[in-house]
Amino acid sequence: MSKANVGFAMCGSFCTFKKVIPQIEELISLGFNVVPIMSGVSYSTDTRFGKAEDFIKQIEDITGKKIIHTISGAEPIGPKKLLDALIIAPCTGNTLGKMANGITDTSVTLAAKAHLRNARPVIIAVSTNDALGAAAKNIGLLMNSKNVYFVPMSQDDPENKPNSIVADFTKIPETLKFVLAEGKQNEPLFI
After folding, report:
1. Which of 35, 76, 160, 190 has the fewest Cβ atoms within 10 Å of its own Cβ atom?
2. 132-150 burial: b if 16+ Cβ within 10 Å, else e
3. CA torsion 100→106→108→111, rounded to 10°?
4. What are 158-180's pLDDT values in tens digits?
5. Are 150 and 185 spatial neighbours (Cβ–Cβ below 8 Å)?
């Protein structure tokens, strides 16, 4: 498993970036070759959670690679079979909806489509305020899709945000190793 080429795609759930980026470091420490990918929005948007240029620099310093952030940059992933696995963390409700409905208009959704054409695993780490609302049907569709797996997840604030679910990002390495070794969803999925 180590030395496997793993795409790590980040979408615009900016509040989770500081929890997700250490998982890139962890994967590298486990011997994985991590290829960074960001949606155009996550690559170019400054928020109260940090500046885009700071996140870009941090990720590129950790991986030693330039971030794929355009559709043209993501397109070769499929034809050239560049990845053994693709992780999408954080994966927003917007990206879940696009993937569930075959829409490939971002670098992340095109990376997923291009990668899935090779029957290789995509691992999703959900982070959305409407996972138990509007996004629930899309999560269900993706759970029934071949070669799509999920990082264990739970409600992050049931009292104030009853529809919100966030993956346990610390379980990304464990999920990746299980998917690569067993080709199955690790359980429990909801924690």
Report:
1. 160
2. beebbebbeebeeeebbbb
3. 90
4. 999 999 999 999 999 999 999 99
5. yes
